[in-house]
Give the backbone structure.
Amino acid sequence: MPTHRMDPIEEGRRNWLEHDSGPVEQISAATALTRGKQIAVRRTAAALGEHGLTFSQFEVLMALAEHAAPLGMGELGAALRLHPTTAARTVARLERAGHVERVASEHDRRVSLVRASAHGAEVTASALAGLRDIRFGLDGWDAEDVRRFTRAVAPFLTD
């Protein structure tokens, strides 16, 4: 016997209509965005987990890959919009895993810079390929759906 899949967004909308006359469409949209984010994050985390990475670690590795020269913690934090302490914690985990290495600055030997190790570069490339395979958690969406969605939410992402 086929099972009917309940649409949780529509079900929530019906519940709001029954109990409240507030901004039901906005509540439904916010719920859909939240649920969509959860699904994309779960899919992305699973793909990165296959490579032993969290999303934060992947972001650090990608930032290092995008820069030819090693980066300091302040530069890395600024590139990722992270506090330097958060960047340092993430780098420490990556260093323990052998994905990054610290090197002394050529200009000031007291300053420690970070670069991806050869192993880290391989893991980054492999993880990126995995994310591309699942289309960054949006597998099943065609290019036009993604463009339409991006245009629709863009005005709300300036907060």
